[in-house]
Amino acid sequence: MTVGELAKECGVSEASVSRFCKRIELKGFHHLKISLARELVDAKDDGEISGHISVDDMEGSLRGILSNKMEELRRTVAMIDREKLKKILEAAKS
Question: What per-residue confidence (pLDDT) applies to 53?
Fold first, then answer.
């Protein structure tokens, strides 16, 4: 997305997106995109999630789905920068 596309999707101005990036101590929107991409790459490097589902082994397939979802949640929580999240929440309150 461009800064304009993100602003439109969020219902704010491009300037608000830029100010938000500065408020969470990023250099700008481009830096936000790079940081998010880096986080996604790092999360993928943690391990492999299987997508194998078999009609012949429904119980095993369901256990696999559950395991994959739990791993996705673990990765999501692990990659959250607590200090940045705190700043985002503080910025959202003001």
Answer: 79
**Residue 65: which of 48, 76, 46, 51 has the closest Cα?**
51
CA distance 93 to 88: 9
Tokens linked to 5: 């596309």
Q: Give 91's contacts (C-beta < 8 A, 6+ positions apart).
A: 20, 23, 24
C-alpha–C-alpha distance, residues 45 and 27, integer Å: 26
pLDDT in tens, 38-72: 777 665 555 555 567 788 888 888 888 888 888 88
Residue 20: which of 39, 38, 7 has the closest Cα?
Answer: 7
